[in-house]
Automatic annotation (TrEMBL):
Heme binds at C370. GO terms for molecular function: heme binding; iron ion binding; monooxygenase activity; oxidoreductase activity, acting on paired donors, with incorporation or reduction of molecular oxygen. Belongs to the cytochrome P450 family. One of its GO terms (biological process) is sterol metabolic process. The keyword Translocase does not apply. This is Fatty-acid peroxygenase. Residues 350-370 are annotated as: Disordered. Pfam families: p450 (PF00067). It comes from Streptomyces radiopugnans.
Length: 423
């Protein structure tokens, strides 16, 4: 009998310990990998740039069969790009990359988001206090729908934002958040599937080259167009994670509050227009450090496609193989003083491809690495710069970020009061 068959199942321990589960197991292990059982399957977990290259090699690890049903029914959607391998994956992925890697498209989305932020910030000033997480989710939902060609009236932005947040918030729990996530997904897939049908039969029109247009016309590896439901799933795979940047915005506000010296530097850069890109070199380094430091995606996983060996250790075919994202982004072997928040670590040295992996590793064109990473960095850079220029009070509130909760966030959502937008 193999060793992993004798191990107790760790699924409950993972649910109870959240982000700390895998890094703790890693710390306690003396070998090059952790062995466990998850969802009844023998499991190994790895970390480090070499492990990234090992896991993202499709001859080693396949994704399709690995994703649990509760994750597909909330976070990603059935039939999503996340669930594909080989040629089918590459053809679908190329569609995302064409939309999300173009500098012009990224600039368009950032322009819509910053305009929406400025309008919203003027309204925050009229209210006693606002929850930044919720406000950022609405700003991003309105901006990404407009940019993607999804018609959304102003009055609908709040419920759309709530549903898009719910799909992310409920994927890793068995409680009420999970059931909210499932119904949010059902509702939004039906909404977007009817938009795709209307675009296809000519009863609705969307801008040429927009996300809806490109997904509705996309031809998959089998030579067929996507059915309307799968097209809706993939449009959601642009809308949902863009809105999820609100998690990072709340974390950015947390960092500015906790370490105010960064606010001064960001504001100075934003005021003088120094630097480059969407907010300047310091703002971009700050965005990378927020993505490294704060907990968001805990790990990614797939199934071993063959009997494998990792640094002399056997990994049996069919085993669940996890890449410890959160652990790697805090690994003292890769990061000096990993638990100190310090954007300067990215000032002189842009992140290495397989070192900083909050959105996966490897090459996004050939593997599953997030195609929205440039969009995320651009949005977070621009919004962090804006946040640094906004004056506000931070009233008494619960700012703890519970590591047991996946995905986590400041418990209060980061409340700001007495907002004074820049003049
Ligand atoms: C909010 C910040 C974000 C985080 C933390 C994040 C994280 C991730 C992670 C960990 C993966 C999986 C990588 C893997 O399986 O190897 C992923 C995949 C993906 N992300 Fe993101 N992402 C974010 C933003 C975005 C944005 C803004 C978009 C699109 C506009 C996006 C679209 C996608 C898609 C389509 C995939 C599937 C790629 C594939 O399977 O090939 N993400 N993301």
């Amino acid at each position: 009998m193999s060793l992993s068959r004798l191990l107790p199942d760790s699924t409950l321990s993972l649910l109870a310990r959240g982000y700390a589960w895998l890094p703790d197991r890693m710390r306690r292990t003396t070998g090059p990998l952790v062995r466990a059982r998850l969802l009844g399957k023998p499991t190994v977990a790895l970390r480090g740039p070499e492990a990234v290259r090992f896991v993202y090699d499709e001859r080693h690890v396949r994704r399709g069969p690995a994703l649990p049903e509760p994750v597909k029914s909330t976070l990603f959607g059935h039939g999503a790009v996340h669930t594909l391998d080989g040629e089918a994956h590459r053809v679908r992925k190329a569609m995302f990359l064409s939309l999300l890697k173009s500098p012009q498209n990224i600039a368009g989305l950032v322009g819509d988001a910053t305009a929406a932020w400025d309008e919203a910030a003027a309204r925050w000033a009229e209210r006693e206090r606002v929850v930044l997480f919720d406000e950022a989710s609405r700003v991003l939902a309105g901006a990404v729908c407009r940019w993607a060609g999804v018609p959304l009236k102003e009055a609908e932005a709040e419920s759309a934002a709530r549903d898009l947040v719910a799909m992310v918030d409920g994927f890793a729990t068995l409680g009420p958040r999970h059931w909210r996530a499932r119904s949010a997904r059902r509702r939004r897939e039906a909404w977007l599937a009817s938009l795709v049908e209307a675009v296809r039969d000519g009863s609705a029109s969307v801008p040429e080259g927009s996300v809806v247009d490109v997904v509705a016309r996309h031809v998959d590896a089998d030579g067929e167009r996507l059915d309307a439901r799968t097209a809706a799933v993939e449009i959601l795979n642009v809308l949902r994670p863009t809105v999820a940047v609100c998690w990072f915005v709340a974390f950015a506000a947390h960092a500015l509050h906790r370490w105010p010296e960064h606010r001064a530097r960001l504001a100075e850069e934003a005021r003088t227009g120094a630097g480059h890109g969407f907010g300047g070199a310091y703002a971009e380094a700050f965005a990378h450090e927020v993505r490294r430091f704060y907990p968001f995606a805990p790990f990614i996983g797939g199934l071993a496609a063959a009997d494998l060996t990792w640094r002399g250790e056997p990994v049996p075919r069919g085993a669940l193989v996890l890449l410890d994202i959160h652990g790697q982004d805090h690994d003292p072997a890769l990061w000096e003083d990993p638990y100190s928040f310090d954007p300067r670590r990215f000032l002189d040295r842009p992140p290495e491809r397989d070192e900083l992996i909050p959105q996966g590793g490897g090459d996004p064109a050939t593997g599953h690495r997030c195609p929205g990473e440039d969009v995320t960095v651009a949005l977070l850079t621009a919004l962090s710069a804006r946040l640094s220029l906004l004056e506000y009070d931070v009233p008494e509130q619960d700012l703890r970020i519970p590591l047991r909760r996946i995905p986590s966030r400041p418990r209060s959502g980061f409340v700001v009061a007495n907002v004074r937008p820049p003049g």
